[in-house]
# Entry
Amino acid sequence: MNTKLLRKSVLGIAGLAFAGGMVAGPATANAAPTVESVKPVAATVLADKADKPDKGKLIPHGVQGKQSRIDLTDEQVANVKAIIAATKKAGMDERAAVVAIATALQESKLENLGHLGERNDHDSQGLFQQRPSSGWGTVEQITDPEYSTMAFLKGLKQVDGWQDMPLTKAAQTVQVSAYPFHYAQWETQAADLVAEHWNS
# Structure
């Protein structure tokens, strides 16, 4: 075969491939996203951030001590949502929901507990381990998540300056627990749950 002809053929094919790449390449490989395709994503991210409560508002005094965390079942998440709904119904803010959820995490791990027999602390039941004998309500009432939350929040409202107290002090003033500092360990998870579910 003629080497001159072969060289022309190879150069012609290479040139065609190069020209095709120049024409097709930049149009697809280096195409910048259009402004329209970027705006909705940015708007969505901003909307998501705007929907979440400010962490500084949820934990205004910082956490005290080592923090605990548990994985939640669907039932426990439903109880979180019930506490948040009751907090809104009571006309209270996200911080009140953090205090309530941290309290319920300590008292029942967010499980709506019935009477535990020999393991029961007196007659304590429900999310907040409230006692009918102490005037919290009937068994049916204190095992209703909305009622028990409203009862807890009513007590919290009566604590003068609760918003300016560390969480554990505010919770303890309502609950009068034998373990007053145990509420503090749940503040971070409670704040995370309020941030996640306040607007859901």
Observations:
- Residues 84 and 97 are 6 Å apart (CA to CA).
- The first helix runs from residue 3 to 28.
- The chain is about 60% helix and 0% strand.
